[in-house]
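assembly run, all chains below
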Amino acid sequence: MKKNTRNYKVGQTRLENQKKILEAAEVEFANHGFKGASMSNIADMAELPRANVHYYFKNKQELYLTVLMDIVTLWNDAFNQIKPEDDPKDAIQAYIRAKVMYSKKNPLASKIFANEIIHGAVHFRQYLGTEYREWIRGKHDVIQSWVDQGKMDSIDPFHLIFLIWSSTQYYAEHAIEVSTTLGKKNLTAKDFEAVVDSLSHIIIKGCGIK
Amino acid sequence: MKKNTRNYKVGQTRLENQKKILEAAEVEFANHGFKGASMSNIADMAELPRANVHYYFKNKQELYLTVLMDIVTLWNDAFNQIKPEDDPKDAIQAYIRAKVMYSKKNPLASKIFANEIIHGAVHFRQYLGTEYREWIRGKHDVIQSWVDQGKMDSIDPFHLIFLIWSSTQYYAEHAIEVSTTLGKKNLTAKDFEAVVDSLSHIIIKGCGIK
DNA sequence: GTCTATAGTTAGATAGAC
DNA sequence: GTCTATCTAACTATAGAC
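ok done. output:
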């Protein structure tokens, strides 16, 4: 019994420390990229000695990959509900909304992902060639089926997906530019609703969806 | 005369070396961001001793700011020709084309800019608050005048600008994702034409522009 | 104007005491 | 399982010979 109690406690500490480290790492990697991030800064933010970070994560790359994979998991959970039998208008509007709200809620994740892609996806090539490829092909086929059914204009589904992705993503990555432009310190929930409305209007009408 | 000749030669070397350093710096900063970039790597790529880089540019930050400012100058030259009396359809189509072709031609500049914004624009705050603010307000007013003249749907000009900017920019920043998805090593001129066509179709029709 | 040599700092990682 | 102390390597930057 003594042993069990001890193991439980130890497991708890491990989970808590790992969580603290991962949260700190998310901030540091979002702010400085992989190469620019410092394990010292991460340890300081997590309020742990440097050596402990290396105890839980073998090295910088392993920590970074863990952060990246957590983001992908979150992503897969959030954006996997578009089917051919859906009404295009509702489906695209729902998708735009989900994506904008994700940008609002998880700006750090969006930034880390963008950073990884901009810098050539060196730690992420495998994902791009497998999971991501499958994901985007699935979406492509759904949109193509809508085109074939005459439910929308004949538009290359890939470019439509890129358009939705980039325009929604923008409000996470370029938050600073957007808020400076709109003359605000931070965007409000109302601002994000306006984003959803503008984007939905242009994209749905622009694709000839009734 | 001897002195003149010497000064000329000296000035030439300076210009040539600065150019080599700036080109190398563009690659390094695009690939690793400000913090991740290494002055050693830049010197190696420029085929100059490390100390020479420090001779021409006081420190890393000054070199980075020079690269950034060159990009902004190029930008201002390329995208400043939209006027209220223009036909919205032609103007927007021309702008989308110019922006996509800029992404094709200057992917490094696009990446460095995006990287700077993602990481909070710490070296770039001043530009965002002044030049950029003026630039985007000018564009805002032109688009608003089109709305007021009934030439297009009532859409918040800022969100339209962000949409055009993000969707065109995407093909520079996410080149790796795009080419992986389309199953190509590099995008061809034809691919970029298809991008212009898809984006123009959706955005112009989506804004209710005839 | 150029470049070698090196100072001075900070990074990632680990050994070993507790 | 934790953390101090320390190692090695890489970095930015500069002094000083040429």
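Residues 1-8 of chain A have pLDDT under 50 and may be disordered.

The first helix of chain A runs from residue 2 to 36.

not gonna interpret more than that til we talk
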